[in-house]
Model the fold of this input.
Amino acid sequence: MKKYLPKAILTLAVIGLLAGITVTYEKYRGTDLSRVPQLAGRRLQAAIVDDTKRESVTLVAVASSDVASDTGKRHGYREVSASPPYVEEGLTLYPTIEKGMRTPFDLWRYYGRGVSSFGSPVLPMRFDQWLDFHRKQKPQLMENVRAYMESRFDFSETPLPNATMSGGKPIMKGPVVRPPKGIESFEELASMSVEEIREQDIFPYKPLAHPLQSTAHMVFPREWVRVHPEHERIDVDMDIPESYLPEFPPPLYLTTHKELGDVTNGREVTLDNFFEIFDGLLTPEQMEGLKELLRPTPTTWFNHTDHRITEKPSRGVACFDCHVNGHTNGAFELGPDSRPNMARLRVDTPTMRGNYNLMQLSSKRSVRSMDHFAEIEEYFDGDPGMQQSIGPRAAKREVTNRMGDFNSIIDYPPAPKLDPLMRLIPKLATEQELHGEKLFHGKAQCAKCHYGPAFVDDYMHDLKLERFFVCRPEGPIKTFPLRGIKDTPPYLHDGRCPTLHDVVEFFNLVLELHLSKEEKEDLVAYMLCL
Amino acid sequence: MLDQTVSSYRSPTFLRLALGYVYLHFGLLKFFPDLSPAELIATQTVMAFSMNILDATTSQFYLAILECAIGLGLVFNLFPRLVFGMFIFHMFGTFLPMFLLPEFTFKIAPFAPNLEGQYIFKNIVFVAAGWTVLMPEIFSERRKEKAIAKVTLEQAPESQERVEYEKVLA
Done:
């Protein structure tokens, strides 16, 4: 008996310790110290519990399965102990990381709160250590990025015959997303039910994350960096091959000078040459606006301080460094719409062509005018935490209005096969293209959201991809216009569809269209005319 | 002299319990996401060590299991050989950040650590403590007897048990 006493005491102590930590954790999560967020429903329940104790119990039981721990108690707003949302659905808490540290590529599986809504201009280490850290990390990171992209996409670089972008760059054939293991074809996949796809976790069009979401920020294509070595990053490079990105430099068309075609004559417009190219073609306001679109400003990570991702101090980034020639070079960034950083969606640069026709700008922010966009452009950081150190952007409204003035004359590329009502002119179109148009307006339902002169409805839609795989839902995203669509790969806000074929496969699954192989080809052929 | 030798083959109980408690407590914390103060450095090290095959959540889970196992082993004095193996492996791991993530552990390497680095440096004491606690436990009874015999023979060469002791030593 006596022999076992010490062991018994120790066992009790261990159990006590475990119980203590569990109770502590219950108190901790959901507080503002914790990154485990509150579940919105929980707050509601707590309130209900207070008023009508009895009914609430049933209500609560319906709402969530593990509520037994905190029913019947009045909870303050901050004190509600949250059962982490979606845990049942398989989400995990974001890992704890510092700026610069690697983040999971499958960020859609994670959830959680950030430490703060505000950024800080402080690096987690000295600058020379920062350089060392990335010199070590980058090669391994990029190798893993390549392997990851290779596992998702088959970048075989096969061009479509007789199809080029407006400036002549070949357009790649798809779909390049790899069909899930054990599934022969996309047709077989599309014949499965939504539930089956979710259950077997085989949805092939999952989001793309920024390869280094802890620093995130702008990642430029290699082709751009070769010409602009000042944008070479020490920590990460572009993950999509060049042939699946827009052409560089792209043509620039003006609504006010249609007769000139590409006004740049194949050059990249820069601060050095814009005067020569545009003097006498633009109004003074447009000239001023263009100059501002070309003038670099410090950003969160491209600036003169130590808080940067370039070896040497940087002068910053100009609008046209991503929206080169008023189009796009395929650079990507994170949408500035959510915190923590890891919850932010990767967004690739949309073209500025035809912005004059859009009522919704940016995938989630629902910005309503180009002037306003130029004013608030948050890549240059709306974050006061950062502005303290890199300087506020301080563009006056008169100036941003002029940036809008230039933006509003950037035109779409020519589409000779379309009539004024945006229908194909039968004489100029092939059988296949005409059939594609019929599908677009009929069986494939595309025209429900993509209509009008820019093929866009100017609404935000929630495509509810969470039906297809376990993820943190992305929520509503604006419809992107399809006019000139052949010039802007990769597709969707994060570029997860490198080719138009992939987009068609994507919508075929999401809208459950059951299109045949030929029908899909026809749709692509049609979109190449827009 | 004999007493001294024998006592150096006894594990100091208080030290063993203290060490076990620290392992167990900080091991248990790692089972709860976002509760462990060492989450950042520990998970990043395990991830780096596994060549990023393990993700953060998995790394932390395995680490939690390892630490709790060592903790329980020490507290209840179980499987000293196994615990010693795990302990050495774990201690080796705790020093890894200094090599794998020097930027996060030093102000200026190698003599000026930051707070994380300091926390790692002080594990030298842990190594010493673990050694003191575990070595006696894993020394076989036979080696203990041998040592006692040796000392006794030296001290009292003419003692009665001499023959017996000589047998032990042979």
Q: What stands out?
A: The longest helix of chain A spans residues 127-152. Residues 45-111 of chain A form one domain. Confidence is low (pLDDT under 50) at residues 40-86 of chain A. Chain A touches chain B through 33 residues (CB under 8 Å).
